[in-house]
Write a structure and sequence with these properties.
The protein has eleven helices and twelve strands. By secondary structure, the protein is α/β, with parallel strands linked by helices. A ten-stranded mixed β-sheet has the order 2-1-3-12-11-4-5-10-8-9, sandwiched between helices. A two-stranded antiparallel sheet has the order 6-7. α7 packs parallel to α8 and α10 crosses α11. The longest helix has 19 residues. The two termini are about 20 Å apart. The structure holds 3-isopropylmalic acid (IPM) and manganese (II) ion.
């Protein structure tokens, strides 16, 4: 297995180092070979190459680098974001560009409360918080369609188009139905989240695709629907109700930050940008956390969890049970360590970044 490693900015390289430490240990135990290549990509390189911090003036990633990334089995990403660079430059120039060009059309975000991890939800525990969100990752308002006219005048007009295709909705929905079947939880339920009462065009495309596919191809799976605003309420009130959730790009972005906080915060939340037939990219959901950079206090659990996902999903993709098993072992080791930590928040863990990595390795 060949893995491309993109440490990125801020605390990205620190948390990625812990995930790689765990990879090395689990590879020895489970008995598989791998190699890693580091790619120097991110805000620091953009500035060093003469990039304008105020607007995108040069590519953040080059076409040749994207071509190289296509040859790997998986990509392991630390964090994107730099305090000196205007919002949007790195996000669009690196993260979104990779998601789109590698056609990583699923953003898979497990929401699982590990043992001993504090949730802000009163009277809820690990048995109540264990679901997964399938976020469409290449369409919606993320495509950058639209524009601005009469900018800077009182007549300024801007549009940001929600580009929804039946094709895009269908492939996300099918992936989610398949996942629901594979999870095989007693609920066996897929919840569509949208806003069909207001987005009567895009919402209706999702709604019809969801019901037609569900009825014809997945009669064994219970179908459920939430408006996105109501979903925010139910995630807090009744998280135990959910099994798998499927939703569009922006709604998925928003509800998974809410979901991350109920599973213990961005220190533990991981995600995978998945192309089921191509190259997928795994990342901790948190950002580059500039104020914690270099202090050895950031929580690497989300990055270690992203490594567990990388192993498991690559295993599913390649029908390789050794890798699936390795991913499960990493997650089991994490669940052994979370109860020994004081908190999942940076600087409050009772352990340093490197000590958390060491503890997970020891638990393997
Ligand atoms: C995420 C992030 C990104 C997104 C940003 C950094 C572009 O918030 O992965 O959820 O909006 O998708
Ligand atoms: Mn987000």
């Amino acid at each position: 297995m060949r893995i491309a490693v993109l440490g990125g900015d801020g605390t990205g390289p620190e948390v990625v180092a812990e995930g790689l430490k765990v990879l090395k240990a689990v590879a020895r135990k489970a008995g598989f070979d791998y190699s890693t290549d580091a790619f120097d990509l991110g805000g620091e390189r953009y500035l060093a190459a003469g990039g304008d911090p105020g607007k995108a003036s040069i590519p953040v990633i080059h076409d040749e680098e994207i071509a190289q990334l296509r040859t790997y089995d998986a990509i392991y990403l630390g964090a994107v974001g730099h305090p000196k660079i205007a919002p949007g430059i790195l996000e669009k120039g690196l993260l979104l560009r990779l998601r789109f060009e590698l056609d990583q059309y699923i953003n898979l975000r497990p929401v699982k409360l590990y043992p001993g991890v504090e949730t802000p939800l009163k009277d809820k525990g690990p048995s109540d918080i264990d679901f997964i969100v399938v976020r469409e990752n290449t369409e919606g308002i993320y495509t950058g369609m639209g524009g601005v006219q009469y900018k800077g005048t009182p007549a300024e007009v801007s549009t940001q188009i929600n580009c929804t295709t039946r094709f895009g909705a269908e492939r996300a929905i099918r992936y989610a139905f398949e996942l629901t079947r594979r999870r095989n939880s007693p609920k066996k339920q897929l919840t569509l989240v949208h806003k069909t009462n207001v987005l009567t065009f895009a919402g209706d495309t999702w709604w019809r695709a969801f019901n037609e596919i569900g009825e014809k191809e997945y009669p064994d799976i219970k179908r459920d629907y939430n408006h996105v605003d109501a979903c925010c309420m139910w995630f807090v009130k009744n998280p135990e109700f959910y099994d798998v959730v499927v939703t569009d790009n922006i709604f998925g972005d928003i509800i998974t930050d809410l979901a991350a906080v109920i599973q213990g915060g961005l220190g533990v939340a991981s995600g995978g940008n998945i192309n089921p037939r191509g190259v997928s990219m795994y990342e901790p959901m948190g950002g580059s956390a500039p104020k914690y950079t270099g202090l050895n206090v950031i929580n690497p659990m989300a990055a270690i969890g992203a490594m567990a996902m990388l192993l498991r999903e690559t295993g599913v993709h390649k029908h390789d049970t050794t890798l699936i098993d390795a991913g499960n072992r990493v997650e089991a080791a994490m669940m052994n360590i979370t109860p020994t930590m004081n908190s999942q928040a940076a600087g409050k863990m009772g352990l340093s970044t490197t000590q958390v990595g060491d503890a997970v390795v020891a638990a393997l």
